[in-house]
């Protein structure tokens, strides 16, 4: 692909209330931000409340040059707020409030048209927790041509039935070790080896490509024939918020550019490490900053 890829992301946009302050968040927003920063054209389908936090989120999007044309405004439901706690191992635990604006993303015909013309469509499981947004998502998925499912499971906001519905629609599945363990326990059996779990999911749901992120252990990629494992970049972690989202954005970008899968994985791991070394999910940076970081850590 010579032209820059176009990607539509669907789902939550919110405020993360962290111990040291409030930051804008939501996995699909983070993915869209990083895609735009590294050269793709990306938009976010989401919904905010008709309130001050919603206006502030929209201002944040303008500040980071993320288009807001597809972010709806809800007159009844509030903008999403999430209470987040950072644990001793740098992992983040979230309390995600129910019945917020992005639970009520409404379908509009042009959303399906946009997804049908985009090079990729990214979605997660969290935005499918409510019937309204779930029906909108399923409607859009009927039009999308290349569907990337970033599982992003957040207990208790999932069910086996809804996960199955979404897995059946995916061309690419991205998950972490814990999510692989959860999916294999739900649909297959507990305690299986990674390769066995992956093979089951691929065959059960007909998913051609699966990516597993493993934090400091790197990442793995599986298609129907091969498995590729790559090591993580050694880095001093500031926080892990958004690192997986930035990994996915980098993976999508290089894959849509037609690069070899080893190059795609290495670039994605470099991006994830770079963002983990920064504070927050959407730090300001340029592709030169990222390239320099990867170059330094490869030498």
Fold blueprint:
Blueprint: E1 6-10, E2 14-18, E3 21-25, H1 27-38, E4 41-49, H2 52-63, E5 71-74, E6 80-86, E7 92-96, H3 109-117, E8 120-124, H4 131-141, E9 147-150, H5 160-167, E10 172-176, H6 177-187, H7 194-205, E11 209-213, E12 219-222, E13 227-230, H8 243-256, H9 261-276, H10 287-297
Parallel strand pairs: 1-4, 1-8, 2-6, 4-5, 8-9, 9-10, 10-11
Antiparallel strand pairs: 2-3, 6-7, 11-12, 12-13
Helix pairs in contact: 1-8, 6-7, 8-9, 9-10
Question: Your description of this structure?
Answer:
- The chain is of the alpha/beta class and 299 residues long.
- The chain has a single domain, classed as 3-Layer(aba) Sandwich (UDP-N-acetylmuramoyl-L-alanine:D-glutamate ligase), CATH 3.40.1190.
- The two termini are 29 Å apart.
- The model has no long low-confidence stretch (mean pLDDT 93).
Shape: globular
* Strand order across the largest sheet: 5-4-1-8-9-10-11-12-13
Tell me the structural class: alpha/beta
Which consecutive residue ranges, at least 5 long each, have pLDDT under 50? none
From the N-terminal CA to the C-terminal CA, the straight-line distance is: 29 Å
How would you characterize the largest beta sheet? 9 strands, mixed
What's the total count of β strands? Answer: 13
Instruction: Provide the β-strand percentage band.
Output: 15-25%
How many domains, in number, for the residues?
Answer: 1
- What is the string of helix and strand elements? EEEHEHEEEHEHEHEHHEEEHHH
From the coordinates shown, what is the CATH architecture? Answer: 3-Layer(aba) Sandwich
């Amino acid at each position: 692909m010579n032209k820059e890829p176009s990607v539509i992301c669907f789902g939550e946009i919110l405020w993360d209330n962290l111990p040291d302050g409030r930051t804008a968040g939501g996995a699909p927003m983070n993915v869209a931000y990083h895609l735009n920063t590294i050269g793709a054209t990306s938009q976010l389908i989401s919904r905010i409340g008709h309130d001050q936090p919603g206006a502030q989120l929209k201002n944040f999007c303008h500040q980071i040059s993320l288009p807001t044309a597809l972010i709806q405004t809800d007159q009844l439901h509030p903008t999403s707020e999430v209470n987040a706690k950072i644990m001793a191992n740098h992992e983040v635990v979230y309390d995600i409030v129910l019945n917020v604006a992005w639970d009520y993303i409404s379908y509009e015909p042009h959303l399906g048209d946009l997804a049908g013309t985009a090079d990729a469509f990214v979605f997660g499981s969290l935005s499918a927790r409510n019937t309204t947004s779930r029906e909108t998502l399923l409607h859009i998925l009927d039009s999308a041509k290349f569907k990337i499912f970033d599982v992003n499971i957040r207990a208790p906001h999932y069910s086996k039935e809804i996960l199955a519905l979404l897995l059946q629609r995916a061309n690419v599945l991205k998950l972490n070790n814990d999510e692989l363990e959860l999916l294999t326990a739900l649909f297959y059996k507990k305690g299986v080896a990674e390769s066995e779990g992956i093979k089951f999911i691929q065959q059960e749901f007909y998913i051609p490509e699966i990516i597993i992120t493993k934090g400091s252990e790197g990442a793995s990629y599986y298609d129907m024939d091969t498995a590729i494992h790559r090591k993580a970049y050694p880095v001093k972690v500031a926080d892990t918020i958004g690192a997986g989202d930035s990994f996915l954005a980098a993976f999508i970008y290089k894959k849509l550019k037609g690069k070899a899968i080893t190059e795609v994985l290495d670039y994605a791991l470099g991006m994830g490490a770079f963002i983990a070394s920064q504070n927050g999910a959407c730090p300001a940076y340029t592709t030169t900053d990222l390239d320099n970081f990867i170059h330094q850590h490869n030498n």
